[in-house]
């Protein structure tokens, strides 16, 4: 338990928050260049003579009153000191009625308001609010007409579920205070849900709220007109020049007559984007209700160049300076085939990755041929790996599958000149699966993603230290799960669990690419990449057969006006090893900065590695799953 004490302390600390109270005084102010002492004194005297208004009310009501009162605007005006007494008297007289009308939008129909003069020269006013009990929702009537009602009455299960969801998700339940802003938001949410489910022309046939101030109760009446359900009738594509129309249309997965839900259109747009063939892709539908039974889907694309070459420079705390060169051919020999070559050169690691793949077909499959080479050096240790992969992928938004055969030759050397090396040649069959149920693949805040990998193969190794050879079978299993939960009040959370295991017969070495390490940006922060784990084979250190890591993170925007910029607190734990006893978790915890950018979350983290007794900076972009 003592090893998890930092987690408990972190969560307790997050339960505390500090808030800066805003001043109740309404008075104009401005920024200016530095003044002389005489000018500053004169400005201070002028400010002291200006009228001021103090609002004595609940902090949540003050912004409403400040927006609604002529008196508040007059006090804040730069010309406040020129307003005559007659005008002040009028403003003071109408302020209570204006305040009461504003407070009714907050459900406060019994509010009592009065204005007191605290002083005459300078004029100091106090507006005092006694709110009374709010009006609460009493009886609710929410009905639906249009095609949704017809389908539900005919027994359509999807329509019945949508009607039930509208009722269940209506936020203004009986007993809840009725505020006009909440009333407007609730009505907008109903229409948004209907339109997202394929009823693109949904509208309100009628709404009303009857208020009984004496009973402090309201009765709500709402009738939503779903309009027609928009169904797929065909796909029109604009902007194609190089690529085949039938392949682009086949990616839609929208059979004639299928509902054109918001999710279906967004999935189509995401699939087009993921092909890598387009710089831009937008998918919309023709909103004409008369054509809803056979609505046309409109696709507008901007094709990416057939040939693209990029060169980038970077730096990481793990590998130092880094150069990456990549060349991509999106249509090879005028065939629906992509070819890419990526060369990465860093201080301690160099790699080349090639790929030849077909474009996605109508079944969302593509064939893949991928050779690669990698070399990594760490002090006196050098690793090299040659791999060739042949397989097929199936790529949808919520589900991906990759099945492939792989040939690999790897070598790890402590002293290559003297033959202190362990080399491995292996052939394996592998399958990878990914499931996603997320509100956004790019910037998730709710849902989960699960990844499973399994592989089995035949390995032959040679230990250069004693020239021994082993042959045998090996297998590998890996699982990674990540979940996202909104906590309310702009708080969000996420948790990750990662497990892996590799084993072999006859003590044969498992190929390097099939082994595990822990530590780094997307593992246990506070430690370098591959800083936790490793197995000694004679004088050599290679990856481990077991892996277990976990992470918990909480985040909150710095300000509600800029929700895309957040601070975060996290704790990670885990390790790689060769036995369960070796998996005693190393802890890393710290604070981070998040920017929810258009291309994915940018994360900057500072983490304290408990075992290393030092901090470490981590930088990453995107979500890995």
Automatic annotation (TrEMBL):
Organism: Ideonella paludis
Localisation: Membrane
Superkingdom in the source lineage: Bacteria
Keywords: Cell outer membrane, Membrane, Signal, Transmembrane, Transmembrane beta strand
Name under which the protein is recorded: BamA/TamA family outer membrane protein
Secretion signal span: 1-20
Domain POTRA positions: 230-304
Xref: PANTHER family: SORTING AND ASSEMBLY MACHINERY SAMM50 PROTEIN FAMILY MEMBER, TRANSLOCATION AND ASSEMBLY MODULE SUBUNIT TAMA
Pfam families found in the cross-reference section: Omp85 (PF01103)
């Amino acid at each position: 338990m003592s090893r998890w004490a930092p987690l408990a302390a972190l969560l307790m600390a997050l339960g505390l928050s500090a808030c800066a109270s805003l001043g109740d005084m309404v008075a104009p102010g401005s920024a200016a260049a530095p003044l002389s002492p005489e000018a500053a004194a004169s400005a201070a005297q002028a400010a002291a003579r200006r009228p001021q208004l103090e609002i004595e009310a609940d902090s949540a009501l003050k912004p409403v009153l400040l927006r609604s009162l002529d008196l508040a605007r007059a006090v804040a005006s730069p010309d406040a000191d020129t307003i005559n007494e007659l005008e002040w008297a009028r403003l003071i007289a109408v302020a209570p009625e204006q305040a009461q009308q504003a407070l009714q939008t907050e459900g406060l129909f019994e509010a009592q308001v009065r204005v007191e003069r605290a002083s005459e020269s300078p004029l100091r006013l106090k507006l005092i609010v006694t709110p009374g009990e709010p009006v609460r929702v009493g009886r609710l009537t929410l009905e639906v007409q249009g095609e949704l009602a017809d389908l539900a009455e005919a027994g359509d299960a999807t329509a019945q579920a949508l009607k039930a969801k509208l009722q269940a998700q209506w936020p203004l339940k009986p007993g809840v205070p009725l505020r006009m802003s909440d009333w407007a938001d609730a009505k907008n949410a109903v229409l948004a849900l209907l339109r997202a489910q394929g009823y693109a022309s949904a509208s309100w046939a009628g709404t009303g709220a009857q208020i009984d101030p004496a009973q402090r109760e309201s009765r709500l009446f709402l009738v939503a007109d779903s309009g027609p359900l928009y169904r797929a009738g065909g796909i029109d594509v604009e902007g194609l020049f190089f690529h085949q129309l039938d392949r682009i249309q086949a990616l839609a997965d929208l059979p004639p007559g299928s509902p054109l839900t918001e999710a279906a259109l967004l999935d189509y747009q995401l699939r087009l984007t993921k092909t890598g063939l387009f710089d831009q892709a937008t998918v919309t539908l023709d909103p004409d209700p008369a054509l809803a039974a056979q609505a046309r889907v409109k696709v507008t694309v901007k094709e990416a160049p057939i040939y693209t070459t990029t060169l980038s420079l970077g730096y990481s705390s793990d590998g130092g300076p880094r150069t990456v060169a990549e060349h991509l051919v999106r249509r090879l020999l005028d065939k629906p085939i992509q070819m890419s070559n990526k060369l990465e050169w860093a201080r301690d690691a160099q790699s080349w990755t090639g790929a030849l793949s077909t474009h996605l077909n109508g079944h969302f499959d593509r064939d893949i041929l991928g050779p690669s080479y990698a070399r990594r050096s760490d002090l006196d240790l050098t690793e090299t790996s040659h791999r060739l992969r042949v397989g097929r992928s199936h790529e949808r938004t919520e589900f991906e599958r990759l099945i492939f055969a792989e040939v690999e030759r790897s070598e790890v050397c402590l002293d290559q000149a003297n033959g202190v090396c362990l080399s491995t040649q292996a052939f394996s069959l592998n399958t990878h699966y990914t499931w996603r149920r997320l509100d956004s693949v790019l910037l998730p805040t709710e849902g989960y993603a699960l990844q499973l990998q399994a592989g089995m193969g035949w390995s032959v190794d040679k230990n250069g230290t004693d020239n021994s050879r082993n042959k045998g079978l090996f297998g590998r299993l890996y699982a990674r799960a990540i979940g996202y939960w909104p906590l309310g009040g702009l708080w969000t959370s996420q948790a990750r669990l990662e497990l892996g295991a590799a084993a072999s017969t006859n003590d044969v070495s498992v190929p390097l690419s099939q082994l595990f390490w822990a530590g780094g940006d997307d593992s246990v922060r506070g430690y370098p990449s591959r800083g936790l784990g490793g197995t000694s084979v004679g004088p050599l250190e290679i990856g481990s057969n077991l892996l277990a890591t976990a992470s918990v993170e909480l985040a909150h925007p710095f300000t509600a006006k800029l929700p895309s910029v957040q601070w975060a607190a996290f704790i990670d734990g885990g390790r790689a090893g060769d036995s369960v006893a070796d998996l005693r978790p190393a802890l890393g915890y710290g604070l981070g900065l998040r920017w929810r950018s258009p291309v994915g979350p940018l994360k900057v983290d500072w983490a304290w590695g408990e075992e290393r007794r030092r901090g470490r900076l981590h930088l990453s972009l995107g979500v890995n799953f």
